[in-house]
């Protein structure tokens, strides 16, 4: 790759070739299930016609289409991209997507796959040079434990809920501690944002409140055979238990914040709601995911004033337009210490999500930091350090991965991207 074409050569080399740790992502669909969801979900977390009919008319889609058409060597139309990817062998599609990313290690939240539609953790290692690590989604863990302990021979009552809470608390605590001791597990994740909002109470609710909430969980399970935790006193309870274990073992707790699908309450997805919880557990590392978009400034503020808070800037690639991505990254850099910024793709289902999440982030990192150099805010050496920390070093330190950056991986990926763009 010819860095002489760039005004800041060292910055370009760091942005486009430094290997990356994807600190928050999800498994790919297995080949047999690769068409189970509309491919337009690559562009938006909307559902139904809002994604299949509307997402393709966003500026973000037009940019993604151009980039994918170059990757797949097809015409610059959304339907052409879809047809070309369908014509490829699935393994080849995965390879062409991943080999251009320079991702060295994946931290996979496999809790998104509740129906066994995805490939397993170790399957993803073929596309990285360091073994994948697991992020344990605590709501899924709690649901799995409850399913095995809800008594099917007793009526739903406060007494039954009291018994179940006692059994569950021991089993959940044991499962958290087991995960914390597992070298394959890098951390935990909560989707409280989706279920009951980020205003998680740091105070222990009365036992009766938790038991009453658990009665609601049991009643729905008995009636529908579906188990979904969405009762605030109980959901807050499992978050607090996780924060306690995390504080002792040092493995971070990731929180979905901001950007998501229609399930979230937007006003309760601001990370500002987490401030009391963050204060209550100062020894627990907290990662605010997805740049907390559109509440990025609030997230940056929290990371600037609390030692235990870190800010991830994933998922905005490719969901947000390039102009929006640059604005968001600038907001991240307004206050957030650059040793607390983490990058991710939030890749899921389709390999192209990883590709777009990487190439767009690298491009925006270069352009925003080049502006900062021109404005006299930072030197080029300082900007290079910011990129290396954001892409690799901060996650390596926070999650205690102990990795050495695979420089050759990044160089190979950059050359592949250059070849794609020249064709």
Automatic annotation (TrEMBL):
The record's GO molecular-function terms, alphabetically, read: hydrolase activity
Domain (Amidohydrolase-related): give its ranges.
235-366
| SUPFAM superfamilies per UniProt | Metallo-dependent hydrolases
The record, for InterPro entries, names: Amidohydro-rel (IPR006680), Metal_Hydrolase (IPR032466)
Fetch the Pfam families from UniProt: Amidohydro_2 (PF04909)
Stated name of the protein: Amidohydrolase-related domain-containing protein
């Amino acid at each position: 790759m010819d860095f002489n074409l760039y005004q800041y050569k060292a910055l370009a080399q760091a942005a486009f070739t430094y290997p990356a740790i994807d600190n928050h992502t999800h498994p790919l669909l297995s080949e047999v299930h690769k068409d189970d969801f509309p491919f337009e979900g690559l562009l938006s977390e909307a559902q139904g016609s809002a994604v299949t009919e509307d997402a393709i008319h966003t500026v973000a889609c037009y940019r993604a289409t151009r980039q994918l058409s170059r990757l797949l060597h097809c015409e610059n139309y959304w339907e052409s991209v879809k047809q070309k990817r369908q014509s490829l062998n699935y393994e080849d599609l995965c390879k062409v997507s991943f080999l251009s990313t320079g991702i060295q290690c994946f931290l996979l939240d496999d809790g998104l796959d509740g129906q066994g539609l995805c490939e397993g953790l170790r399957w993803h290692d073929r596309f990285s040079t360091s073994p994948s690590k697991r992020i344990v989604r605590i709501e899924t863990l709690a649901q799995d434990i409850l399913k095995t302990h809800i008594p099917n021979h007793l009526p739903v009552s406060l007494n039954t809920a009291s018994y179940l809470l006692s059994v569950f608390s021991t089993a959940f605590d044991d499962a958290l501690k087991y995960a914390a001791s597992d070298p394959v597990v890098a951390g935990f994740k909560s989707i409280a944002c989706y279920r009951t909002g980020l205003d998680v109470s740091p105070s222990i609710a009365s036992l009766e409140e938790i038991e009453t909430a658990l009665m609601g969980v049991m009643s729905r399970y008995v009636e529908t055979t579906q188990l979904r935790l969405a009762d605030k006193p109980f959901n807050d309870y499992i978050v607090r238990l996780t924060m306690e274990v995390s504080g002792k073992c040092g493995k971070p707790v990731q929180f979905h914040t901001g950007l998501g699908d229609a399930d979230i309450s937007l006003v309760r997805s601001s990370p500002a709601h987490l401030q009391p919880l963050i204060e209550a557990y100062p020894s627990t590392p907290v990662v605010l995911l997805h740049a907390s978009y559109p509440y990025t400034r609030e997230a940056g503020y929290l990371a600037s004033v609390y030692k235990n808070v870190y800010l991830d800037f994933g998922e905005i690639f490719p969901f947000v337009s390039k102009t929006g991505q640059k604005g968001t990254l600038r907001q991240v850099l307004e206050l957030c210490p650059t040793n607390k910024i983490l990058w991710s793709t939030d890749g899921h289902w389709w390999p192209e999500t990883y590709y777009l999440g990487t190439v767009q982030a690298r491009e925006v990192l270069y352009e925003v930091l080049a502006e900062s150099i021109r404005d006299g805010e930072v030197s080029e050496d300082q900007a290079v350090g910011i990129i290396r920390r954001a892409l690799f070093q901060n996650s390596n330190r926070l999650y205690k991965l102990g990795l050495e950056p695979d420089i050759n991986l990044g160089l190979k990926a950059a050359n592949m991207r250059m070849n794609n763009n020249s064709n």
